[in-house]
Design a protein that fits this description.
- The complex is a heterodimer of chains A (132) and B (128).
- Chain A has 132 residues and is mainly alpha-helical.
- Chain A has one domain.
- Chain A has five helices and no strands.
- The mean pLDDT of chain A is 92.
- Chain B has one domain.
- Chain B has five helices and no strands.
- In chain B, helix 1 packs antiparallel against helix 2 and helix 4 packs antiparallel against helix 5.
- The longest helix of chain B has 29 residues.
- Chain B starts with a helix and ends with a helix.
- The mean pLDDT of chain B is 96.
- Classes of the chains: A mainly alpha (132), B mainly alpha (128).
- At the A-B interface, helix 1, helix 2, helix 3, helix 4 and helix 5 of A face helix 1, helix 2, helix 3, helix 4 and helix 5 of B.
Chain lengths: 132, 128
Amino acid sequence: MSVINTVILVFVGGAVGAMLREFVMLMVPTLADGLPLDILVANLVAAFLLGLVTALHRRKVLTDGVNTLLGTGVMGGLSTFSSFVYGSFVLMSASFDGALVSLLYVVASMLLGFVAVLIGLKLGGSGLGDGG
Amino acid sequence: MQPLDVMWVGLGGGAGSVLRWWIGKLAGERYHGAFPLGTFLINVSGAFVIGYLSVLFAVDFRDRYGTVLNAGVLTGILGGYTTFSSMQLDAAKLAGRSPPQAAFYLFISLVCGLLAAALGATLARLQG
């Protein structure tokens, strides 16, 4: 695939993914203590779907182009790391209780994200580490 | 949320995603080790920039749209640039070879990401 085609697929996918993230986040209520549950939901959905897309691409169900559009573009745009860590940092620096809750939130997010991508890979018919 | 906000999020998300793809490609061409260096550098640098810009322009992290800065740059570009899903996919690939390496990668990404956000915020505060 030529570079310009890849750039277009990643741009369009990333744009759609970022807008989807905003729509997902608008639908998820923020918890009373200000935990960014909305970011977690967007990230978990993206991790699960990226696992699924990757597995289907490995099995040649999806072409390279579709994988670039969905995997690199949409799922990359849908998930975010910057808001995740910055939001957690702000909550951590707010108070001692905030720090504890926030620490729990980040650790749980990392573990759940890992489980989400594994479920996606498994459901798509691919295991750990397959295909590099 | 206004249509204009959606447009800025989309344009920023597209641009940030292309930047992520390009930096990932550059890192992949130069570094051939097992550690997912590209995604790591992307996420840590994005965390630094969001901390810096949020404090410099006094944007609360819960306010994700309404201006070009928070919708286009913070939610759009930085959200599209950094990725949680690719980090987890990298970890799953690493776990196939070495589960401790995968755990270390996730741990170091989180710690460096939090430190980078704190560093960016502190730098902006020092600048006043």
